Amino acid sequence: MDKLVSLAKRRGFVFQSSEIYGGLGSVWDYGPLGVELKKNIKERWWRSMVHERQDIEGLDAAILMHPKVWEASGHVAGFTDPLVDCKQCKNRFRADDPRIKGTPGQPDAQCPVCGSKGTLTAPRQFNLMFKTFMGPVEEQAAALYLRPETAQGIYVNYLNVLQSSRQKIPFGIAQIGKAFRNEITPGNFIFRTREFEQMEMQFFVKPGSENEWFERWRAERMQWVAALGIRSEKLRWHQHGKDELAHYAKDAYDIEYEFPFGWQEFEGIHNRKLDYLDPKTNERFLPYVVETSAGADRTTLVVLCDAYREEEVGGEEAAEGGDMRVVLKLKPSLAPLKAAVFPLVNKEGMPELAHRIHDDLRRHLKVFYDDGGSIGRRYRRQDEAGTPYGITIDGQSTQDQTVTVRDRDTLKQDRVAAAKLVEYLTQKLAG
Ligand code: GAP
Question: What is the CA(198)–ligand 1 centre distance, in A?
């Protein structure tokens, strides 16, 4: 994991938030390549959910919502983790922290940090929602929460969307947006953070059809994940046991990935039992919803972990750039940069032609120009960035207007007419 975190920083994927002030715990910023990668994943999700289907509408609801939403949804009462404090060293832990020996609140319990015995308090429920205030005077202002999931924006707009879009049940509403949780045990890079993005879709179904739709959505979502290019042996299902189910769920499956720190979920498919009360009619409504809930950041981490390889290379490549390489084997359509343009040397008309090619490609694809250092080093830098194609302008190029295109994964080189590059790359990048 450390190697991936350091590559992410070195190549501009992810930086620690507020690093120059010492960093803010479990909050991360996406750099030039990271923002492209995450955007490609979100766009792919949006396309498959909203554009390619007739039965799902998009939404972008506000992060701030009426505080009653969170009472009605059960989050004020139930979105909690049990915590214990050490009275000696003042550290705070989840009550089920496996490092705690004994029973918190009892004399035998031992603090995992300072080692004191009998200093851990009995567990207390700690709400994970961030509170803030609306209005100019804090004391008189309404207390609000930053949403801990995006789903509620969908629920409260259910009728608005239904009526304005002329959809009929079964239909869904999809949304991508930020969510916030004051996690007690965040960590593992962008896996569990306090500010993150979710890609959620609520599918409203007729009573009695929820189990069938639940199974359909499970199959759809696994297919979508596989199409990101993730190795199938690194993916599995996990069904929630009764004690794991969230306060709203009737049945739930997670899609898990084998991260370097073990199997963990990155997407959940939930059969939600809602019990919203219509304040006007006093009727309970919308009880049957199948939810697919993915983390955009966690999916990005899955994609990065799965793409990361250290490889031995041979032949000409080894001579030019060393015999070991780190490469991100990202699916080309997800890669932040689609190609890099390299003049072999900075003379003999090569830079001029390379700039012309770069300018032309730039209008179609996200491409990068690099004329620094040996060609081997330039290849290695783009391997680490996950750039699928390297375009080299050499002596022959200035004679016959052809270039070499190096494939990141096979290391094979094709000679392609400069005028045909857009067509060549577009074909390769499809999918
Ligand atoms: N609306 C249902 C819901 O929010 P969840 O299992 O709590 O369900 C869904 O979250 C997904 O959101 C997770 O699978 C994960 O990908 C992402 N997620 C949740 N908490 C997160 C956190 N603290 N940091 C990063 N991603 C998180």
Answer: 7
